[in-house]
Amino acid sequence: MNDFNAILEPGMLVRHPDKPEWGTGQVQSNIGDKITVNFREVGKVVIDGKHVLLVLVNE
Q1: What is the pTM for the complete model shown?
Q2: What is the largest CA-CA distance in the chain?
Q3: Is 58 left (phi over 0), alpha (psi -120 to 50) or beta?
Q4: Fewer CB within 10 A of the terminal residue: the chain, N end or C end?
Q5: Hey, which residues does 57 pair with through a beta bridge?
């Protein structure tokens, strides 16, 4: 897992760097390399933290 992704905790707001159309998402869980995020526009998505570096949102 990427070091940054390792700090993500439930409730944090993130964006997918390659999918801006998904909007802001809220981290639901972060277990191993799997990060579950509930995105505003597409719903719940499981992200592989080995391949995607999520972007923290400060709103």
Answers
A1: 0.90
A2: 27
A3: beta
A4: C
A5: none
Segments forming the whole domain that contains residue 8 = 3-56
| Count of structural domains within the chain | 1
What are the structure tokens assigned to 3, written together? 């070091």
- What are the two backbone dihedrals, phi and then psi, of residue 4, each rounded to the nearest 5 degrees? -65, -45
Q: What is the pLDDT of residues 3-25, one digit of tens each?
A: 789 999 999 999 999 999 999 99
- Is residue 14 within 8 Å of 25, Cβ to Cβ? yes
Asked if residues 13 and 23 have their Cβ atoms less than 8 Å apart, the reply is: no
Which candidate, 5, 13, 53, places its Cα nearest to that of 30?
5
